[in-house]
Amino acid sequence: MYVELEEVCGAPSPFRVLELESDEVVRASETMRVQDRVLYVVSPLDLKDADESYLRAGESTVWATGPCGEAPVQVATGIEDIFTLEVWPEVVLGCEKATGNVVVIDPTGAREPHVVFPAVPNVWGGCGLNWTDFGLLSLEKHDEEFAALRLHPYPTDPWTEVAVPEVVSDPVRIGPSSGAGPGFLGNVLYTFVDEALVLTPEHDLMRIDLADGTMSTLQTAVAGFDASRDGRYLLWQDATVTGGDSEFPEGKVLLRDRSDGSEVLLGETALRLSGGALWWIESGIVQLRLARPINTQRIFFVPGLDFIDLSSQLFLNGQLADGRWLTLNFFFDGHVDAIDLAKNEPTRLFPREASVVHRDDEAVHVVEVPLCCIRGDGREQGSMWRVPLDGSAITKLAERATRAMQQLDDGRILGPIGIGARWLAALVIVEPGTLEELRIDDRVHFYSIDVSRVNDEGIVSYSVADGERSGVYLSKLPTVARTASASSPAPSEAAVGFDVVQGLDGRPVPRLRGMN
User: Fold this and answer.
1) What is the pLDDT of residues 172-200, one digit of tens each?
2) What are phi and psi of 454, to 5 degrees?
């Protein structure tokens, strides 16, 4: 059964705002509204391997329209990402995949894209290394181990000027650790809005002040280091090898609080074993994976540094309102557990294997499918449940759901089900009280569903692959579907944890959920 949608743009929903070919998809994560224009990144799909667990995409184009599809125009080609910056909030920027150029894009199409940051090597799914208060940071690689760290200052007028890069440190280490993420290269380089922390060829840990380029030594004889997201804490490994092997040499690992200079020895291990060791430092814990005892991680409580030992396969998935932590175990089971770290007491929240998709102060929401993506992929579906934290009765929210389902502010569930080989799905809305499943549209691209306007305006955007009907659509949910729930739950918070996702260009991307 289809839901009775409201009008949008003065016409019945679904309303097409941009025509596409049936082998094209718009990326929800790359839809942008600037002034009175909407920009879409459109990717042609490679369907030769339609049964793969992810889609491959060719060279993307950027289209812009009015809010209701007025004056559609192609404004750029070969763009991998579009975005704006705080320094230029009304200026649309794009990353050219082939050249590494960062260009300014005119949403009206009146001007050709202008290169403002030329030839910036892409490090991790974006432009350059990191955007800072002083410009764009990038790496000019010499080889697999060393590179020059460069700063590209913001020009005064991005439409007429071109940034000229300045070398701030050369060389810096970029290997052997190669795990990458936004603003850092794991264990060897971390960047922030006003500083960068780097390792020299001599294994000195240096701080670079991006305001004036001055450098200061934080520590000598460093094999590798980790830094908290605010830069306050450093976790570093002494370069003197005490054990291990050539891939994971062990040494003393110390935690430093840069706010007061205090430092404490946590143990001896290979720091490269500990991805995200300081991810939860703001919640008062450090996760250090140990080489010995094997398969162990030590959880330290800051500031007292008492500790407990857990399996190294156990990942903390976010802290609950009652102080316990959600946990994940990728390789051995997919059960939803909560653990009281102070007592080292785990509790099973849901009796069967499931994936956590949302949480709020009172409950977690799970879908009865395996964890993605070690076993299975994002197409699996199962029932969706609300699991109260106080131990009261578990309630079903939807008979059919996927990991992409979202709970709206009014309590209803929105998302794709029945995802097929081409990642086409039915887009549905579900009433949790009756479990009635109402269809919004068919043959909807999984990657295209944009719910950024749904809670405020009731509007969902997506692309459809269906012959002559193919295109980007807006649908407006009926008023009753947005306001009927008298006792609306608190807005859900996406669970934070590790995912392995596949990008539209086919690259596997291991990612901390909530990390952008």
Assistant:
1) 998 764 343 335 567 889 999 999 999 99
2) -70, -40
Q: Please give the Cα distance from 138 to 122 (Å, whole number).
A: 8
Output Rg (C-alpha) for the chain, integer angstroms.
24
DSSP class of 447? G
As a whole number of angstroms, the longest Cα–Cα distance in the chain is 71
Q: Which helix (H) or strand (E) holds 237?
A: strand 233-238
Beta pairing class for 130-131 and 114-117? unpaired
Q: Which two tokens stand for residue 287?
A: 């996760």
Tell whether omega for the bond before 14 is within 30 degrees of 0, i.e. cis. yes
Q: What does the block give as tokens for 421? A: 């080989």
* Three-point CA angle 441, 446, 448, nearest 5°: 85
**Residues facing 152 on adjacent strands:** 136
User: Which residue from 250, 223, 218 is spatially nearest to 234, judged by alpha carbons?
Assistant: 218
Tokens of 207: 């701080």
Question: Which secondary structure element, helix H or strand E, spans residue 476, and what is its range?
Answer: strand 471-476
Q: What is the pTM of this model?
A: 0.86
Q: Which residue in this structure is represented by tokens 């918070």?
A: 493
